[in-house]
């Protein structure tokens, strides 16, 4: 076991077992596993989903994510949770979860929700309190509050680390900008329009 551990360290920089063959550290999905003897209730606990998020931003929405980075005990359990708050007119912009399907429950308000299928068909639905909607894994989806009061939703995702890629941020606000020539052809618009959009990000 010790030789395997040394090989693993050379390949990954992480020990599975120490050279003395005693348990040292196990990393699964990039997160360290805690020694079972030291596990407590706090490793499976989070408090705060009863507190509204701050929606005073340009999107008018707030997301509180409860994933493996928040509850370490979620590692390898394949589940996570979010609370989404919406001001009137607030939006959770088009995005994808590369590693999870999402199911959303409306607690308050009225949401227009939708996703785009792999053949570019838009599936939309208006949801009210108590309604549930599913967003399939990896598809672009969104939610917008179409009521005059606040809206609240809870979502569950079948991954402890679902990830989120916001389409606008990724296309127009990447750290190294996508070349303008690529975007002008992709969106069939002039360069000045692309540059103006990029400046907003």
From TrEMBL:
Gene3D superfamilies, per database record: Jelly Rolls
Keyword Secreted listed: yes
GO cellular component entries: apoplast
Pfam families, A to Z: Cupin_1
Cupin type-1 domain mapped to chain residues: 47-195
Molecular-function annotations in GO: manganese ion binding
Chief place of localization: secreted
UniProt keyword list: Apoplast, Disulfide bond, Manganese, Metal-binding, Secreted
Residues reported to bind oxalate: 92, 97, 102
Binding-site positions, Mn(2+): 95, 97, 102, 141
Cellular location(s): Secreted, Extracellular space, Apoplast
CDD domains: cupin_OxOx
Family: Belongs to the germin family.
Name under which the protein is recorded: Germin-like protein
UniProt source species: Spirodela intermedia
């Amino acid at each position: 076991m010790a030789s395997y551990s040394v090989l693993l360290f050379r390949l990954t920089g992480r020990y599975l077992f120490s050279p003395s063959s005693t348990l040292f550290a196990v990393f699964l999905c990039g997160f360290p596993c805690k020694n079972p003897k030291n596990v407590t209730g706090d490793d499976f606990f989070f408090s705060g989903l009863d507190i509204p998020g701050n929606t005073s931003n340009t999107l008018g929405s707030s997301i509180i994510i409860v994933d493996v980075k928040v509850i370490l005990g979620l590692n390898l359990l394949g589940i996570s949770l979010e609370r989404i708050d919406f001001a009137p007119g607030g939006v959770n912009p088009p995005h994808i979860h590369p590693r999870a399907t999402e199911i959303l429950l409306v607690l308050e308000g009225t949401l227009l929700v939708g996703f785009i299928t792999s053949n570019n068909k838009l599936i939309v639905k208006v949801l009210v309190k108590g309604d549930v909607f599913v967003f399939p894994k990896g598809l672009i989806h969104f939610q917008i509050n179409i009521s005059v009061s606040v809206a609240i939703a809870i979502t569950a995702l079948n991954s402890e680390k679902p990830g989120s890629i916001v389409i606008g941020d990724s296309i127009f606000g990447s750290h190294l900008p996508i070349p303008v020539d690529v975007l002008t052809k992709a969106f069939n618009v002039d360069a000045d329009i692309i540059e103006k959009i990029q400046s907003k990000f």
